[in-house]
Specification:
The chain is elongated, with a radius of gyration of 32 Å. The chain folds into three domains: 400 residues, Up-down Bundle (Multidrug efflux transporter AcrB transmembrane fold); 129 residues, Alpha-Beta Plaits (2-Layer Sandwich), CATH 3.30.70; 105 residues, no CATH class. It is of the alpha+beta class. It starts with a helix and ends in a 5-residue tail after the last helix. Strands 5, 6, 7, 8 and 9 form a five-stranded antiparallel β-sheet that branches. It has 26 helices and nine strands. It is a multi-pass membrane protein. InterPro entries: MMPL_dom (IPR004869), Mycobact_MmpL (IPR050545), SSD (IPR000731). This is Hydrogenase expression protein HypA. It is found in: Cell membrane. Keywords: Cell membrane, Membrane, Transmembrane, Transmembrane helix.
Length: 748
């Protein structure tokens, strides 16, 4: 391993200009890759599309949901003749706009039952409304103040084309003579998704700039004892560009969680840069620059690499999560920390050669020297009384483990996005009026879902559900409701009658509820409620389906966002602990393979405690688990491993110089205490940029991560001395016992 780093050092010293050109070329390629980065929102970030549920959801989305926009007409009387005439006048031209495949509104139904015309008086409107199925009427006119019209976009549109279609619709609406008192807004999943992607892009830029500014401040305040104190910030910026390039060129999409990986990467990347820069400064004070560079690479390179790989073990554990955005966060974090490590390893020595780096002067600043002495005194006091300290540490951790199950799990996507986002405000307005705009779709499939028996069952089952769950469901619509409406308010009695009625229903309407004769969807509209209550409702609906099943040969499956987010609770709860346990196992195996020493497992002990402390902090602060904070345990393992490993490595080095364990602990903390604090605070402030995000899910994650970093520093400085002292005492007792057995054998 050392020879590999030695050869790298020789290459940097002998060919600095060549390596500089290579790095410039890589950065240019990365800039091209950055233009290929795409944002990802929607159900695919929460559910693996290759899973069974993901396949069902994908099929439902492609066939029944597609890209649907909702035109929201708001006024005092949305069914007045004037408003209905206006809606009818705009829906036809909208359907002819580019990228629009179809439209549906209340006027389509009214014209069908009123001989193709819009009523000209309120009395006529009232009479026509009696001929329309109440479910259909409520679908398009959910309240006395709102009317909804659906605009379906062509499948497979790019984001640019979707945006163009939405702008065309809004421009057309603005060009019409809107009746006084009528307000029109564009909403729906497609509009929500587009604006969310835009907000994510803005948030990412804000987070990265904030993290870099905080790094400059930290370097200016805490890293003044070295030359070119802002060099680590430049290194992280280069690492960031290279990481963006890798992400773009490999086609990794950026979700809310993946965006959060960049400040995390900056926080960890600055740490690696500080470690190399500090060692270079130390070596350059007593050695010629080439020797200082070689010593830095060969001595610090392996140590920081081991810490970096241990961090990656925590991120690697995220791959067992069934939630794609958590997997994406882990993947981008691994790519980022590896790129930042390699950038620090190569570019810092390279820049030092190119600028002929000179050390600032002998020794550290008075501040850092004072910090080192204070920390060493604390470490000695703890090392002399390890048992009481560890009892307190694990008492708090045990309380945290007990409290962990009481922390709520939040999977409400609307709560994750900026509260002032226009699309969210509009969506919330609709939700307050009519309940959730996101239905609970029940997809039924079989040999012939349009048999008379099947259509009758659809109507009977929707009526049953509305009766059984009247406080949770406010409406239900299926093709059966349109059949009744288009058959003068009655259900056909023969298959021929049914087929005739089906032929009269507009194709755009049938597309919303039918896929040939083999599939149909029943849409249940739910009142506003928390996700756990929705989960209970889903279980009850499955129970009702078992008690009142569809005709033989037909099966039903609940899907859509309703299924995604109700199932997400169980996915998060089940995978949260599994990720944490796997993180512990991976780090323990890694440390055992690298160090092959009983002390190698010492970093695991404070990490276990830190995970428990995190739960206490979350409980006291009232924070919930969500798709991001669910991976806090495994991420904490990765972050905390670095600091505890650095303390352990320095302790092992000092232990070789003295037999006195207290002296070894004192010297190890005195020599690297301030360096760990500087690195820790740099990481702390890098992570704290997440708090500035306009996305609540990201800002809450930022708060939990900086708490985890703070606890990690306590674990390294305060808990590690206690563990190392206790292990040494146990090892000495075991050896003493072995000596007694060997030298004083017992003879019966």
């Amino acid at each position: 391993m050392v020879s590999l780093f030695s050869r790298l050092a020789d290459l940097i010293i002998k060919r600095p200009k060549l390596l500089s050109r290579i790095i410039v070329v890589l950065m240019l390629i990365s800039l091209v890759g950055m233009t290929m980065i795409t944002m990802e929102t929607g159900n695919d970030t929460y559910l693996d599309k290759k899973s069974d549920r993901g396949i069902i959801l994908g099929h439902y989305t492609d066939i029944f949901q597609q890209n649907t926009l909702v035109l929201l007409f708001e006024c005092n009387d949305p069914t007045s003749p004037e408003v209905l005439t206006y809606i009818d006048s705009v829906m036809g031209p909208i359907q002819k706009l580019q990228h629009v495949s179809g439209t549906a509104s209340i006027t389509d139904v009214i014209k069908q039952v009123n001989n193709g015309t819009i009523p000209q008086s309120s009395a006529e409107v009232a009479e026509v409304k009696t001929k329309i199925s109440p479910s259909i009427l409520k679908r398009y006119v959910p309240s006395n103040l709102l009317s909804l019209a659906m605009v379906t976009l062509e499948p497979g549109l790019t984001d640019k084309k979707k945006e163009s279609a939405m702008n065309n619709i809004l421009s057309f609406i603005d060009s019409t003579n809107i009746p006084p008192g009528l307000s029109i807004k564009l909403t729906g999943d497609a509009a929500f998704s587009m604006q969310m992607k835009s907000e994510m892009g803005k948030s990412m830029i804000t987070l990265i700039l904030a993290a870099l500014v905080l790094m400059v401040i930290v370097m200016g305040l805490l890293f003044s004892y070295v030359s070119h104190r802002f060099l680590p910030v430049l290194i992280v910026a280069i690492g960031l560009i290279l990481t963006f390039g890798v992400v773009g060129l490999t086609g990794i999409n950026l979700s809310m969680a993946v965006i959060s990986a960049f400040p995390v990467m900056i926080g960890l990347g600055i740490d690696y840069a500080i470690q190399f820069h500090s060692r270079l400064e130390e070596e350059a004070r007593t050695n010629p620059l080439p020797t200082a560079i070689k010593n830095t690479i060969t001595r610090t390179g392996p140590a920081v690499m081991y810490a970096m790989l241990a961090t990656c073990m925590g991120f690697l554990a995220m791959f067992i999560s069934p939630v794609p955005m958590i997997q994406g966060f882990g993947l981008v974090s691994i790519i980022g920390v590896m790129v930042c490590y390699l950038t620090s390893l190569i570019v810092i020595p390279l820049v030092a050669l190119l600028i002929q780096y000179e050390a600032k002067g002998a020794g550290k600043s008075k501040l850092t020297d004072g910090i080192d002495h204070a920390l060493s005194k604390i470490a000695v006091a703890i090392a002399k009384n390890p048992v009481p300290v560890l009892l307190l540490v694990f008492l708090i951790a045990f309380i945290g483990i007990q409290l962990d199950s009481q922390i709520p799990v939040d999977t409400n996507q609307n709560a994750f996005v900026p509260p002032d986002m226009g699309a969210k405000i509009t969506l919330d307005k609709v939700t307050r009026t009519v309940g959730s705009t996101d239905p609970a779709p029940l997809v039924i499939s079989g040999d012939d879902v349009l048999s008379l028996e099947s259509v009758k069952w659809m109507k009977e089952f929707t009526d049953l559900e509305l009766t059984l769950h009247s406080t949770r469901l406010n409406n239900a619509v299926s093709i059966a409701d349109y059949v009744i409406t288009y058959h003068n308010g009655t259900m056909p009695q023969t298959q021929n009658e049914l087929n005739t009625v089906l032929d009269t229903i507009p194709k755009e309407v049938k597309k919303q509820y039918l896929n040939g004769r083999n599939e149909a969807v029943l849409q249940f509209y739910i009142n506003k409620m928390e996700t756990p209550t929705k989960s209970d409702l889903k279980d009850q609906m499955y129970g009702d389906l078992a008690m009142y099943p569809p005709p033989p040969g037909i099966e039903g499956e609940i899907t859509g966002s309703f299924d995604v987010f109700t199932s997400l609770i169980h996915d998060l709860v089940d995978s949260k602990e599994a990720m944490t346990y796997l993180g512990f196992i991976l780090v323990a195996i890694f440390l055992g393979l690298v160090y092959r020493n009983v002390n190698a497992l010492s970093p695991i002990v404070p990490i276990i405690a830190i995970v428990g402390w995190n739960a206490v902090a979350m409980y006291l602060l009232g924070l919930d688990y969500n798709p991001m904070t669910a991976c806090l345990g495994s991420m904490t393992i990765g972050v905390a491993a670095e600091y505890t490993i650095l303390v352990m490595e320095r302790y092992l080095e000092e232990r070789e110089k003295t037999d006195n364990v207290i002296e070894a602990i004192k010297n190890s903390v005195r020599k690297i205490g301030s360096a760990i604090l500087v690195s820790g605070f740099a990481t702390f402030f890098g992570f704290s940029a997440l708090i500035l995000s306009s996305f609540p899910i990201i800002s809450n994650f930022g708060l939990t991560t900086i708490i985890a970093v703070f606890f990690s520093l306590i674990g390294a400085i305060a808990v590690m001395p206690a563990i190392l002292a206790l292990i040494d005492e146990i090892v000495r007792d075991v050896r003493h016992l072995e000596d007694e057995v060997i030298h004083n054998p017992h003879h019966p």
